[in-house]
Specification:
The chain is an alpha/beta fold. It is built from 11 helices and 16 strands. The strands form 2 sheets. Strands 1, 10, 11, 12, 13, 14, 15 and 16 form an 8-stranded mixed sheet that branches. Strands 8-7-6-5-4-3-2-9 form an 8-stranded parallel sheet. Strand 7, helix 8 and strand 8 form a beta-alpha-beta unit. Helix 4 runs parallel beside helix 5 and helix 6 packs parallel to helix 7. It is elongated and about 75 Å long. The chain binds pyridoxal-5'-phosphate. This is Alanine racemase. It holds the Pfam family Ala_racemase_N. GO terms for molecular function: alanine racemase activity.
Length: 344
């Protein structure tokens, strides 16, 4: 093992999923797997999660959703507004589509009518984030169009969804009122949505009254807590980034991981775990970093950049907080040159 590696624990992933499921029950989990399962790889994590009883998988874009579909026959959801070609591929593969604009709703209905394959759609109401979604004043038209298509057997309106800003409890409460109002207008028009999903990780975890029937959750299942957020009971880190000692200098040790591997050079100053305790990163170059020296440093050793293992080292979120980003950003930026090693 002379290259950097992201060691990933299947068991920890499974336990996190179980902890999230227990926490949000009776609401169900939609496991979000965008960015190749937050950088951990879909090929092992989809079957593992399906084995763990996950019924809904969230792929963000159609491409990811199709890759998930190839690995499981459970429900798969894609919510990025997509091209007609992508929508057709998704509908053909039985992927549920999140729809938040009149244009996209029209495209999805056209494709379903043309192919004769009924499309499963989840209508998005904009509850204040203004990032896609029907505005409240557009909702009546969206409902009328979707219901008419449903009556013709062209689509099924399976769900209503939105995304919370999570900036304050008051704003989220106001968003929930808008959400409930939108659902009521759909059911008044004869709609019978099976799933209502408003929340992602933090609100799902901490605010049971906002959960609805389905919760889109990514980060926590991968052991990534919210930046500046509290510890989560039952959630553990699932991945550890390690890198080899490449060379021993006079006043530093060269470690074989750097910005070419996706590590932000702004992490300089953070501490890594060496066999002799924590040492600071002195500088980060392309293929390597310089670390404060330790007694007995040797080229057959490895250091832990983040993850469980030795006392006191940072998790990905602690690193992320140093550079004002979120934990998943650290892991998803790691390039394929960082080998993913799946362990039990
Ligand atoms: C990424 C994403 C999620 C999952 O967010 P986490 O914070 O990782 O749980 C949920 N919903 C939407 C719309 C997303 O884009």
């Amino acid at each position: 093992m002379s290259s950097p590696a992201l060691e990933i624990s299947r068991g920890a992933f499974r336990r996190n999923i179980a902890a999230v499921q227990a926490r949000i029950a009776p609401a169900a989990l939609m496991l979000v797997m965008k960015d190749d399962a937050y950088g951990h790889g879909l090929h092992w994590s989809v079957p593992e999660a399906a084995d763990g009883g996950v019924e809904w998988f969230g792929g963000y874009d159609v491409d990811t959703a199709l890759r998930i579909r190839a690995l499981t026959d459970r429900k798969v959801y894609a919510w990025a507004t997509s091209t007609v070609e992508e929508a057709e591929a998704a509908i053909t593969a039985g992927i549920h589509l999140g729809v938040g604009s009149a244009q996209y709703l029209g495209d999805v209905i056209d494709v379903a009518a043309r192919t004769g394959i009924r499309a499963d759609v989840h209508l998005k109401i904009d509850t204040g984030l203004h990032r896609n979604g029907f505005r409240p004043d557009e909702w009546a038209d969206a409902v009328a169009t979707a219901r008419a298509a449903e009556e013709r057997g062209v689509v099924r309106v399976v769900g209503v969804w939105s995304h919370l800003a999570e900036a304050s409890d008051d704003e989220d409460d106001a968003a929930q009122r808008l959400f409930h109002d939108a659902v009521r207008r759909l059911t008044d028009a004869g709609g019978r949505p099976e799933v209502l999903h408003l929340t992602a990780s933090a609100a799902s975890w901490w605010r049971p009254e906002l959960r609805g029937t389905l919760n889109r959750i990514g980060a926590f299942c991968y052991g990534i807590r919210s930046a500046d957020g509290p510890e989560l009971e039952g959630i553990e880190l699932i991945s550890r980034l390690t890198a080899p000692v490449a060379e021993i200098g006079d006043d530093h040790v060269v470690v074989g991981v750097g910005s070419f591997h996706g590590l932000p050079s702004t992490l300089c100053g953070a501490r890594v775990a060496t066999p002799d305790g924590l040492r600071r990163i002195l500088s980060i170059g392309g293929g390597e970093m310089h670390v404060e020296p330790w007694a007995g440093a040797q080229t057959d050793q490895r250091v832990v950049v983040f993850g469980p293992g030795r006392d006191g080292e940072a998790d990905a979120t602690a690193l992320a907080e140093r550079i004002d980003t979120v934990g998943e950003e650290i892991i998803t930026r790691l390039t394929p040159a960082v080998r993913r090693v799946i362990v039990d």
